[in-house]
Amino acid sequence: MLTLTRQEALGFVERRLNIGEAEKLLAEDRVAFLDQLIVAFHNSVPFQTMTNMAVSPEKRRVPSLDEIKQDVYSGRGGMCIALNGYFHALLAALGYDCYLTEGRMWDADPNTHAVIIVRNLLGTDDSRLVEVGVGYPTLGAVPLDFDLESPTSVELVWRGRVVRVEGERDETRGTRCPVFLRQRKQIDPEEVARLGFGLRENPDQWNTVYRFKLEPQSFVELYEHIDANVFRNASHGLNRTLRLMQWRNNRAVIVLNDLLVRETGEGVCLPVRLESDAEIAVTILREFPVFDRDLVEKAIEQWRRLPGK
């Protein structure tokens, strides 16, 4: 189980997220402080596949709990189990009522994503989706008390929403358990194609990124399943791409394989093609200086060994 003490949590908030007087802010407005934490985390800790890609496929595995703590605290970041796993532990240490549940990505096998649910935030049995580990911004907790769908928001070059649908019937309760679909739709399909994003999407419709239920699962169970279904699965997309994504002043900076992308305005991004492995390495080290050259060069080397690269 990944846990933090309250002092560890407050230290992370102050030193890594650069938020002072955390206990005062928490006491004044738990809802506003939650959103402040989410934005600060997006701006401080990257989603990245580098540490995974730097290892040969047969040796890849989910990071240990100590490695997750070190990678997030240092600002190296990681993938969903590290980012959402750590953020869940952070919220729990700060006194939020929260749990993890599985997300099913792109209709793939279950247990390929970890999702955070915060509940009873207003003392009314309410639930909110919290997401800091999917690789594009969700700059606030999403209330799930709607009948059909949430309000839409701009998420980089997409519009995003959450939709509620009926799930399978629960015979023990005699009811149907609702399923929530995290969806996005391209704002400008030509822009998305130019950036090399959205390869699994229909550009003319809402696409389900992942689905989840309001059913708590243990961190250990998610950790083991994501290790098998993602880290040790050589065909998984996150084992086939160099990907680093971080938000700085709420604007995206992304390296996707041999492309550097900067968000210049709402829904507007500027891509720059990186012409050589040396240029990819220099760009990553400049934009994400927390990584050392040896790891970056190993990740690029493993990426180049993939078929078609």
Features:
single chain; 309 residues; alpha+beta; 8-stranded antiparallel sheet; 5-stranded antiparallel sheet; 10 helices
Order of helices and strands: HHHEHHHEEEEEEEHEHEEEEHH
Summed over residues and divided by their number, the pLDDT gives a mean of: 92
Query: How would you characterize the largest beta sheet?
Result: 8 strands, antiparallel
- By DSSP, the count of extended strands is 13
Discrete helix count? 10
What does the radius of gyration come to? 19 Å
**Spatial order of the strands in the main sheet?**
5-4-3-2-9-8-7-6
Describe this structure in words.
This protein is an alpha+beta fold and 309 residues long. The chain is 33% helix and 27% strand. It has 10 helices and 13 strands. The protein has helices at 6-15, 22-28, 30-44, 50-53, 65-74, 80-93, 189-195, 219-231, 277-287, 293-304; strands at residues 47-48, 98-105, 113-119, 127-130, 142-143, 153-155, 158-170, 175-186, 207-213, 243-248, 251-256, 259-265, 268-273. The mean pLDDT is 92.
Give the arrangement of secondary structure elements:
Blueprint: H1 6-15, H2 22-28, H3 30-44, E1 47-48, H4 50-53, H5 65-74, H6 80-93, E2 98-105, E3 113-119, E4 127-130, E5 142-143, E6 153-155, E7 158-170, E8 175-186, H7 189-195, E9 207-213, H8 219-231, E10 243-248, E11 251-256, E12 259-265, E13 268-273, H9 277-287, H10 293-304
Antiparallel strand pairs: 1-10, 2-3, 2-9, 3-4, 4-5, 6-7, 7-8, 8-9, 10-11, 11-12, 12-13
Helix pairs in contact: 1-6, 2-3, 5-6, 9-10
